[in-house]
Amino acid sequence: MRVVVPFAAADPKTRLESLLTSTERSRLARAMLADVVETVVETGHEVVIVSTTPLEKANLDLEGHVLESVTIEVDERSLSDAVNARLPAGDGREVDVRHGPNDAVGVVMADLALATTDALEGLFGADGDVVVAPGRGGGTNALVIRHPEFRVDYHGASYLDHCEAATAVGATLEAVDSFRLGTDVDEPEDLVEVLVHGSASNRTLTCLRRLGFELERSSGRVGVTRDEPSSVE
Amino acid sequence: MRVVVPFAAADPKTRLESLLTSTERSRLARAMLADVVETVVETGHEVVIVSTTPLEKANLDLEGHVLESVTIEVDERSLSDAVNARLPAGDGREVDVRHGPNDAVGVVMADLALATTDALEGLFGADGDVVVAPGRGGGTNALVIRHPEFRVDYHGASYLDHCEAATAVGATLEAVDSFRLGTDVDEPEDLVEVLVHGSASNRTLTCLRRLGFELERSSGRVGVTRDEPSSVE
Predict the structure, then answer these.
(1) With 80 as the cut, is the pLDDT of residue B133 above it?
(2) Looking at beta carbons, which residues of chain B come within 8 Å of A156?
(3) How many helices and strands, by DSSP H and E, does chain B display?
(4) Which of A63, A182, A197, B208 is most open to solvent, judged by the fewest CB atoms within 10 Å of its CB?
């Protein structure tokens, strides 16, 4: 399966600007991208990073054997347009009504820093012409699309829109129940999830720790604290 | 398996007081309790509701065949103390080192309004002396405990504390990856999750709609709006 990982390279993660400079947000976004791409490749699938601006493979924190399964395409269009162009029969390609599993396309957001191979295998292996992993707040964090007429629309309550769009084209729909795929790292409180659930080898966790973030566990509720970063830039 | 569902009956859900009166919060809490209890019973397990104040079965919005699998116990102690008293070898009962599956105890929070039988079967069926379903922000939303020396402590970052406590007593640990079990309804933004993911038969969703809540989908982000409630009290 081809798995599209859209990546907004310019000024990413603006909802974290109360905590992080633009440079720091870029570092964090790239750490998350590398975590996501490596995990997808570990499930045996090909990754197409669709970046809004040019991106060098050499600048990705990934080993050579992982990069062999990765291509980078630049697409300045909106998220939805860029994804739709890469779906089965996207960009005006002829619809093949005999579409099979080889025509399936996965779409995994680049900020699912806690995605594991188990969670992604649950997504990729689920039945359904359209398989969707919801995010918090009505978002869509990951999809598998096997139906030639389905198109994405990430604006607003996209999870419900995608469910309705699947029904509208007669596609069978399956929702995947995953805390890890449901956790996209957008808001300050999402950093807590990385600090709690990130594995020792998680680049995103390492990045946050280098930037000085730690879990605050002494009070009744859990938060993050930030000390002087141990490395700046 | 006995499944303990702790229920704070007096002045519940105070973090929703910006949106709901005390009476409304009680209604919502009871709707969630009924959803959770019915779903657990549908998985074939016995439920022990451990309530901080007396609670009548007749006042639960549950059908007779469900209530047959439900008992209510009143316990004024703290959440952790009340749960620990009901674990294998709790309250000073002798530790049976030959403890088997019959001694397993489940603990499911009463505000997991989106729990489904699939999600709960994933929890109850997971291997591990201790099985834990994390909530957002480092919380613990559900547990299965098969080890006689494990004790809960819900204060603070309880998910990490429970992982460490399992390791400390030599128990094997399994984490369950579930968006639905990860969603406890505590904060205003959690209401969005019920409005997005609640099924047609979900009491919590029905309760919120009767209180006038609807999804706000017109803007870029998803929120809730509240009209005049269609029924007050």
Answers:
(1) yes
(2) 217-222
(3) 7, 9
(4) A63
**pLDDT tens digits, residue range B145-186?**
999 999 999 988 899 999 999 999 999 999 999 999 999 999
Task: Check CB contact under 8 Å for A178 and B181.
Answer: no
Q: Which of A133, A155, A222 sits opposite B138 (nearest CB)?
A: A222
Taking the complete model, does pTM exceed 0.95, yes or no?
Answer: no
Establish if B178 touches chain A: CB-CB under 8 angstroms: yes
CA distance B119 to chain A (A): 8
Residues in chain B closer than 8 A to A192 (CB atoms): 137-138
Does A94 have pLDDT greater than 50? Answer: no
Beta bridge partners of B130: B145, B173
Contact A138 B189 (CB under 8 A): no
Residues A156, B219: C-beta atoms closer than 8 Å: yes
Closest-CA residue to A66 (of A39, A31, A89): A39
The model's pLDDT over B175-198, given as tens digits with 9 standing for 90+, comes to: 999 999 999 999 999 999 999 999
Instruction: Provide the token pair at B203.
Output: 């009491």
Q: What length does chain A have?
A: 233
Nearest CB neighbour to B138, from listed A134, A155, A196: A196
Distance CA B1, CA A197 (A): 28
Torsion on CA atoms B101, B103, B104, B109, rounded to nearest 10 = 150
For residue A43, give the DSSP letter.
Answer: T
CA distances (Å), A7 to each of A209, B32, B130, in order? 23, 38, 38
Q: pLDDT averaged over chain A?
A: 91
Nearest-CB residue to B137 (from A116, A134, A222) = A222
Query: B157 to chain A, minimum CA–CA distance in Å?
Result: 6
Q: What are A58's two structure tokens?
A: 């050499």
Contact between residue A27 and residue A207 where contact means Cβ atoms under 8 Å apart: yes
- Asked if B156 and A220 come within 8 Å (Cβ–Cβ), the reply is yes
CB-count exposure of residue A42 (10 Å: 0-12, 13-18, 19+): middle
First to last CA, chain B: 36
Is B157 in Cβ contact with A217 (below 8 Å)? yes
DSSP B156: S
